[in-house]
Description:
By secondary structure, the chain is mostly helical. The protein has one domain (22-261). It is built from eleven helices and two strands. The chain has helices at 22-39, 41-65, 68-71, 76-106, 109-114, 120-148, 157-181, 184-201, 215-218, 222-236, 241-261; strands at residues 5-7, 13-15. The radius of gyration is 21 Å and the shape is globular. It starts with a strand and ends with a helix.
Amino acid sequence: MTSPTTPTSSGTFAPRPGGAPLGRMVLAQAGMEARLMLRNGEQLLLALVIPVIVLLAGVKGGARLDLHDLVGDHRLVDVFTPGVLALAIMSTSFTSLAIATGFERRYGVIKRLGSSPLPRLGLLAGKVLALLAVELVQLFVIGGVGQLLGWTPRAGALGFLLAIVLGTLAFASLGLFVAGVLRAEATLAAANLIYLLLLAGGAVVLPAGAYGGFGDVAGWLPSGALGEAVRTAFLDGAVAWRDLAVLLGWALLGTVLTARTFKWE
């Protein structure tokens, strides 16, 4: 916010109410959203604890169960680590966002923020920036664990950056759609159920080829497209344009659905 008073030539102060510049308001909102997310135990469970457990179980347990047929010529850690990074992006930008937004609607937080100087578009932009900030933390934590397990990624910065941005937009728009049409309790159940289904059969952690005939379908899901895009970036150092186009399509669909159905209270 700007200063409520401004000195005049006579040395007195005259009221000058008004909002801060839009960019500053969006950054402030994003910072608050990120802090709230990282302080919440359930959010941390989805954002960091579960992905790290999946990574450790996949690499250590997979070596004992001989899962090499599912990952081809690549090492288990080189396949699982990008897949778990994709899982972390999905858990934060979809499940965590949907649950948090659903309960914010229930308690009237969204309604009150919508009447503040921060425009509603700025509120959504703040949420997306907060997601990207949390995902940066996830990248360092999960990537660090992967390095300790022997992960050796190839340089694929452009492909990974595009996968993060488009994956976040796709899942965030779908998460807001779910949170905007369901009650808070129903959002909690639906978001967790969808998360578990995509984790098990959405080709996010393992390549689509590991699912046999269903892999052709899984590749068109946002989870499968995100997983393949991240794996392509780190395994081949390339950009998976087809999978990025799928993510863009889901992002556009989710945005349209959210714009038409989202209720602020």
